[in-house]
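Cont'd.
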Amino acid sequence: MSVRVRFAPSPTGFLHIGGARTALFNWLYARHTGGKFVLRIEDTDAARNTQEAVEVILGGLRWLGLAWDEGPLTGEATGPCKGERGPYFQSQRRENYERRVEALLSRDLAYRHEGAVRFRMTREPVLIEDLIVGEVRRELTDREAQDPDFVIVRSDGQPVFHLVNVVDDLEMGITHVIRGEDHLTNTARHMALFRAFGVAPPKYAHIPLILNADGSKMSKRDQGASLLAYLEEGYTPEAVVNYLCLLGWSPKDNREILAVPELIERFDLPQVLRHNARFDLAKLQWMNGEYVRALSADRFRELCVHAFARAGVDTNRFPLEYVKAALDTCQGKLRTFGEVVGYAGFYFAETIVYDPVAARKDFQPESLARLARLRAALAGLASFGAAELEAALKRVAVELGVKAGALVHPARLACTGQTAGPSLYHLLEVLGRERVIERLDRASSWRSD
RNA sequence: GACCCUAUCGUCUAGUGGUUAGGACACCACCCUUUCACGGUGGCGGCCGGGGUUCGAAUCCCCGUAGGGUCGCCA
């Protein structure tokens, strides 16, 4: 039997990082087993579902590179889809639910009550054979013991999650339900529903949840909970995928950096952990840095330009060669592209802002006097290349009887406003004589206040 | 309140009865170096607690404790 898994998000206008990982695990499992990955939109709650909200999900999955074999092609519920088991929007599957509810009603497996339809839930404990958690014997809670039945169609006629989820999984031929552990205890209801429809339930695999750094539940509003935020802050999808994989799954051989083909080859359900994991931004940043460093020069520049554009800096105002040269001095220095704006913004700023603490330290009168000597030397340089600049600076340092650092630090601050940045000599070359002289002159008139 | 899941350095994890409990991130120190980053070397740091089982428990069992989840006419 060929594997069919699905990701079934509700379009809330938001793609949770935990949801993204659920999608990833489903996708990896499908690719690993040669099965199909289905995307189904659970838009039963019409009020808060919009086309844009669906696009957020599609965009997020596409960014991560999680291509679905079946499902919507656009955010429009009545729009084009691929796959033979559609529609893939629950809002378009109304008749399926009605037909199934009728079947249950006719066999007295469900009943009408105050306008709603309720399912006759089994009173017996339900045994769940979970592929990750193992065997779970789910007993009724005290509230359920009083009335185990549950609503499957609301009095307004809208079918409820438990019903639509099961009907769709059944009709779409889903073989493995890989979802968050928050659904584990709901699974008893779902299995009972499958049995009521006369079919064996799919296999279940409940994956642990992703928690905040402090161990609390990561909800929508928490920092870093939105997948989109990582796109916006300049992370690469490869790094996010790699990091997300390592949350709740382990290749078990101490490897950390794993490319997608390798993940597909090695990922499997038995190695999924059983305990929740906390989201560690510092590790993601490190991992992203690993990927950023491995990027080609072209892709690196492209992503830098995007980051600047998002920050409102239009690098197109500058000559292409200048932009390329400027960004090339940042290669290997960044962890995320969001950082490039602060790191290399001085290349594209009219007037730079000095780090106040550094200015008090590096713009002492004696430093400014040395800077004046450096300015004179640089102004007369025949060639403004990094090698010549370095030689000139060191020559001036010798003449002044100071270490190179006594010139390097004030010069860096004067030209970039910062204490950290690209190689000084290279950034001076890129900036060019005119800008450099201009910035050295401006620094010379700096006064503490 | 009831039910379910879980528990190894701060974090992510390896470990499945005998290991000096390993790795990665973070942190600290030193080296490299024009800054930063990278890289290198070293360091700090852990089996939640208590009972068993066993010649021997991080590992198996029980009880606590803690964290998470669920018990909706939300998904």
